[in-house]
Amino acid sequence: MKAIKALIPAAILLGTAGAALAQSSVTVYGRLNESVERQKTDDDSVTRLQNNGSRIGFRGVEDLGGGLKAGFTLEHRLSADTGASTNGNAFWGGAGESSVFLSGAFGQVKAGHYTSEAYFATSDVTDLLNHGTGTSADALYKYLGTDNNKVSYRTPELGPVTAELGVILGEGAANRSYDLAVNATFGALGVGLGYEKVNDDIKIGAPAGTAGDSQLGIRASYSMSPFTVTGYVQRYKNDSIDKSKTIARVSGQYDIGALELHAAVGMAGEIDGAGSFPLGEDEGKARQYTVGLNYNLSKRTKVFAFYNQTKFNAVDQTPESKFSVASVGIRHNF
User: Fold this and answer.
1) Helices in 23-84 by DSSP H: which ranges?
2) How far apart are CA 227 and CA 41, in angstroms?
3) Going from the N-terminus, what domains does the chain have, and what CATH number goes with each?
4) Closest Cα partner for 166 from 126, 107, 218, 124?
5) How far apart, in Å, are the Cα atoms of 42 and each of 63, 290, 313?
6) N- to C-terminal Cα distance for the chain?
7) Three-class secondary structure of residue 33 per DSSP
C-alpha cells in the first residue's frame, strides 16, 4: 500500500508533464539550395558551386491558454558547399533569425534579430524564382535596417489587412531606426507597403552610411492560375545630400503543371553625390534582368535553371559594369 501511495504523486507529475508537452511543439526546418553557375563580371569569368541561402532552423510555440501563445525562432545560415557559417561570428544572426514572441487576440509582440517586414511586404514578393536567395535575388532594393536589437508589434487580422511596426534600438551607440509594413489581400489581388527611416542623430562610433535615410515601397500582386504578376516601386532618399532615386521591379510566373516559367526586370535611378560607386553617395543607374524555370519534383524538392544579368554604372561612367550568370541547381526543403 505504501508503494502504491508513493507512485500516485509520480503519476500525477508525469500526467502534468504530458499535458505541458502536448501544449508545446518544436519544429526543425531548413533548406539546402545549391547551383552550378558560370559567373562573369565584366571580362572575368569563373565557374563555381553557388550557395543560395541554405539554412537550418528551430521554431517552437507554447499554448499558454486563453488564446495566448509564446514562441521562438532560431535560424542559422550556412554554405552547403563548404559547411561554413555565412553569419560570421553571429551563429544565429546574419540573414537568419533569433527571436521570441508573445501573441494573442491583441496581436503579436516580438523581440530579437530578424528581417524587416517592410522587405517582405515589397521586394521579397517579387522574388518568385528562387525565394530571394543567390545571384538571381533582387539586387537593387534599398534595405536600411540592421536587424539587430529589434522590437515590433503586429496587429491581428483587421479584415483583409495586417500591419507591423518595428523599432531597432540604437542602444546608445548606433542610430535608431523604424520600419512599417502593411499587407492586404482582396481575392486574387494583394497589395503591400513598406517604410524604413533611420534616425539622423549620429552617435559616437556609430557606422556611417544611412543616418537619416529613408525608403518607401509600394507593391501590388495578382495571382490567377496559371499566372502570377507582381511588382513594386520604391523611393529612396539619401538624407546627407538631400537627394532621392526611384527603384522598381516587376516579375511574372506562368505554371504548366509542375513546370514554372519565370521572368523579372528591375531598374534603379541614380544619385549624383560625392564619393565613389557603389560604396559612396554617387549611385549610378542600374538594371537587372532574369529569366528562368523551376521544375517541382515534389512539394519539397525542385530543380531550376536561370540566366541573370545586372548592369550598373557610376554617374557619367563609361563603359558600364556588368555581372551575368547562367545557373542550374537543386533546392530541397525539410
Assistant:
1) none
2) 33
3) 27-333 (2.40.160.10)
4) 107
5) 55, 18, 12
6) 51
7) strand
Is the Cα torsion angle 13, 14, 18, 24 positive or negative in sign? positive
Question: What local confidence, expressed as pLDDT, does residue 29 receive?
Answer: 97
Segment among 87-96, 204-213, 258-267, 291-300 with least mean pLDDT? 204-213
Nearest partner of 191 among 160, 216, 167, judged by Cα = 160
How do residues 21-48 score in pLDDT, each as one tens digit?
445 799 999 999 999 999 999 989 999 9
* pTM above threshold 0.70: yes
Of residues 206 and 261, more confidence is placed in 261
Upper half-sphere CA count for residue 141 (Cβ side, 13 Å): 31
Contact 229, 217 (CB under 8 A): no
Backbone angles phi, psi at 322, to 5 degrees: -140, 135
Burial class of residue 225 (count of CB atoms within 10 Å of its CB; 0-12, 13-18, 19+): exposed
Per residue in 233-286, pLDDT (tens digit) is 999 999 888 899 999 999 999 999 999 999 999 999 988 776 655 545 678 889
* Number of neighbours of residue 103 by Cβ within 10 angstroms: 18
Point out which residues pair with 261 in neighbouring strands. Answer: 254, 293
Q: What is the mean pLDDT of residues 170-180?
A: 86
Residue 214's DSSP bridge partners are 197, 237
Q: What sign does the dihedral 202-206-212-218 (CA atoms) show?
A: negative
One-letter amino acid for residue 117 of the chain: E
